[in-house]
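Ticket reopened. Same input as before:
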Amino acid sequence: MFQAKTKNLKNFSTSAERFEGANLLCPGCAHSIIVREVLNATNDHLILGASTGCLEVCTAVYPHTSWDASWIHIGFENGSSAVAGAEAMYKVLKNKGRLKQPDRTPKFVAFGGDGATYDIGFQWISGCFERGHDMMYVCLDNEVYANTGGQRSSSTPIGASASTTPSGRISYGEKQNKKDMMAIMAAHGAPYVAQVAPNQWRDMVAKIQKGFATEGPVFINAMSACTTEWKFSPEDTIAISDLATDSLVFPLYEIIDGTKLNITYRPKNVIPVRDYLGAQGRFKHLFTKQYEYLINEWQARVDAKWELLQRREEACL
Amino acid sequence: MLQNGWDTFEIGTILRPFEGSISDASAILPEDRLYSQSNSFSVSVADWRIEKPLFNKDLCIDCQFCWIYCPDMSIISRDKKMVAVDYDHCKGCGICVQVCPTTPKALLMFPEQKDEEEALLEWPKKEKKEKEN
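Engineering reply: fixed in the latest deploy. New output:
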């Protein structure tokens, strides 16, 4: 049952949703596409947690909840340790034989935005991965603090205009490059670390199921196109995600046991980074004479990163 | 519960998504669930929409792209077939129309006030046959 359910999209569409509508996420938000794909990937019981962020604020507006599974929110930084604590308790009760239904295999999942993952909650996630809890951490990476009005985070890429790094006559926006969270989490020696995008649903669901089947901490970095802060119209969420994965700005790969790297998606036609940048309002200022050199630097960086990933994959064969 | 304000609850009140006991929602389809009033399913965001997606059953090939990419669980699919759009929870983002692969599309955006039968009559027709002649 576990495998057959996602053999194709028609089979997958028979799954019963455990995330409800009328949450207050923006129209066209990729967050709920990702959450649906994660929750539908398993039939097991779920114990979920969320760090403060768009997802938490919009799905648990008192007196309503959008989650049809046990769900907890504590603080901005400790979404991961709350779920890790629940997992540790479950393990202890199981060992003592005090569970009423010991044959259940619940899955522990923590959701966090990129602010909660890359900046504020980083120390807590690092702790969870060092202790080796059997849980999954899903980072919904929209490259900005979207919930509080679009401040830059350490996930915001160079040249993006955010509300604390606005572009203008003097500045081209964000000056620092995006933190390589995948490499950092792989360096913890985590058994499974993967990067996913909601438009590649088959790849994403396969990775989530692989993560659920893995014992130990799993890190998933999910690209979540933000229609409000990336400044594109809501119906283009999937098109923008396609551009990101096909231009290799957001390559899809996995790292097993901290060493073995697999590239899981190779676009048939690699498109230039310029197309990806041009589709979003936050990079609009790059298409002026003054800042055009940044686009070439972008392209060079993406090419270098892709080359590095391919070399690393070859080294593992 | 909806009549109560947020301050009429006691501290530590647990909001239950379902009436009675549904321990595992993954085995029960939404129409068979007993939603409680604290589940967001019982509210509507229909007033967010300016345009609504309308569904033309004759053109649909049941590829389910709209189902997987809908951010608001508003595409109702049963038995591997696309059935309808849930207008209580659809926010009118238009992703379903963008990802629809058929020509002409089986889903199209129309103004919120548009009558469905009227829209179906206005639906673009297949042009392929005319070109072959």
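The mean pLDDT of chain B is 87. Helices of chain B lie at 65-69, 95-99, 116-122, 128-132. Please confirm and we'll close it.
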